[in-house]
Structures are given as structure tokens and as C-alpha cells.
Amino acid sequence: MIRINLLRLSFPSSPSNFFAFSSQIPVLPLINRSRSRLMAKCAYTTAFEPPGKKLLFRQLFEKESSTYTYLLADVTHPDKPALLIDPVDKTVERDLSLVRELGLKLIYAMNTHVHADHVTGSGIIKTQVPDVKSIISKASNSKADILIEAGDKIYFGDLFLEARATPGHTLGCVTYVTGDGLDQPRPRMAFTGDALLIRGCGRTDFQGGSSSQLYKSVHSQIFTLPKDTLIYPAHDYKGFTVSTVGEEVLYNSRLTKDEETFESIMENLNLPYPKMIDMALPVNLTCGLQELTAKPVEAASN
Ligand SMILES: [Fe+2]
């Protein structure tokens, strides 16, 4: 198991600014304009940034595979350490350009699972930013710099992601959840890969998939998170960008059913053979390093 201190870049900050911020509320004069300003600040802060505005967050999109890549950074840490979740080979240049423009230090390229529909950008990123470490689950039977297990915490500055095992779409799927603590982002954010999509879920007929396992994973590891936890999936095909645990518990068209009905739905999807799987899987089992050449972006896109 990866221990906290192995992944940790710095010591946690002392008690968050949350208390300092909260303590201002009762003493503010009850003037409508001031209250409006305060409420606006509260809404902005609680929706997207933790106390102290530590977290920088960007949701990025790759249109051919409808994949979301997520950039997270602790911008209050002197190094501004950052990580990318589920980068895609075709959009690595865009992602690294953004990292540079924002003055971040990319330290991790992470995958939620071994993707079958696109080539991960992790390998290309490692050739262009040599200090970056690739991360994937040990259960994926994939190669990476760091192999994580359930419960591991991945620190970037004073912030961290917790790994939760959510197999079922593939054997090695994990969900990365932002930390639980007063100095961590509120509401929490769950990067669910293909285990839980907005109003749907990933298929379970390849890569060691199991509908029974997926049902248990989502209900025990994701639906048990606070209802306001933001759900950020690896894909969306309808234009949705974010959901919440509360919404999916109520409206997910598959996972709101009982387990038997869910398994029947998954067994009768009659989906075509994934068109990229034969090319993408071997490359992704080495976190994208296998196909690299002098021009990695073009080579890996073929
Ligand atoms: Fe997938």
C-alpha cells in the first residue's frame, strides 16, 4: 500500500482559513448590499473552491472520444503542484500549454482505469515533462510509476485525492475523491472514470468487467458519499459536465434499479465491439509509453 508520506509533497497547513472566514459572518453589518456581496462570495467559494481558494480546477474535453480530462492544483502552495486525471494523447499539447500558462508544476498524470476507447496521454506527458509520475491502480495490471490501492492518498501540496476501488467496468477501476477535511475542497469532488457516468455507467462486457461488481462498487463507494459530492465522469455523450451523488441516486437510469434489473440491463445493451480497443489497450497497459517516438503526439494518434 502506498503510504501517505510517500506521496506527500508538503506538510498540511495548519487549520484552514475556513474558521477565519466563517467568523466574519456574524459581525458584518446587516446592510443589504454587504450581505449580497457576502452571499455571492460564499456561493462562489463553496461551489468551486475550498477555504483559502487552494484548489484550481479545470474540466477539459477531447471531442473524438468524448473524454474529460481534469486538471487540479494547489495554487496556494509555493510550487503550485498539479495533476491531470485521464489525459488523452491527442490533447496533451493543449493540456501542457494550459499548465504552463497557469504557472503550475505538473507532478502526476493519473488514470482512473485502462481505457479502451482512446490512448492515454500519460506516456507523452512523461517524455515532455520528465519529472511527472504516472499513476494507475495496482489492480489494473498495468505499468506505471506509482501503483495505488484502495485507501491511498495522493497529495498535491496540501490537498489530496483518496483512491476508492470501484471495479466492474474494468477490474482495476478506481474513483478519486477529494479529501475529507476542513482544509479540503467543499463540496467534495469524485472523479468516477467510467464506473459512474451522468445518468449512466460504463459497459461491463470487456476487460474483466462485471455488472454485479459495478453495482456493488457504485452503491458502496460512490453513493455513500455526501449527497452534494460533485460527480465528474471520464466521458459524457450528451453534453452534461457535472452531476452530484444526490442527483444520480435519484435519476441514474441504470443504477437506481435493483441489482437484478441492473444486471439484466447491462447484459442486453448489445453494444458494438469497441473500435479502438485492440490498438488502445496494449499502449494503455504501459500508461501510454509503448508507442512513443520522436514525434510522440502524432505517433500515438495513429
Ligand atoms: Fe473505459
Automatic annotation (TrEMBL):
State the Gene Ontology BP annotations.
Answer: glutathione metabolic process; hydrogen sulfide metabolic process
The terms describing its cellular component in GO are: mitochondrion
Gene Ontology MF, one: sulfur dioxygenase activity
Q: What is one Pfam family matched by this protein? A: Lactamase_B
Keyword Mitochondrion carried by entry: yes
State which Enzyme Commission number(s) the record gives: 1.13.11.18
Q: Keyword Cell inner membrane, does the record have it?
A: no
Give the family from UniProt.
Answer: Belongs to the metallo-beta-lactamase superfamily. Glyoxalase II family.
Return the protein name.
persulfide dioxygenase
Which source organism?
Quillaja saponaria (Soap bark tree)
Question: Highest lineage ranks of the organism?
Answer: Eukaryota, Viridiplantae, Streptophyta, Embryophyta, Tracheophyta
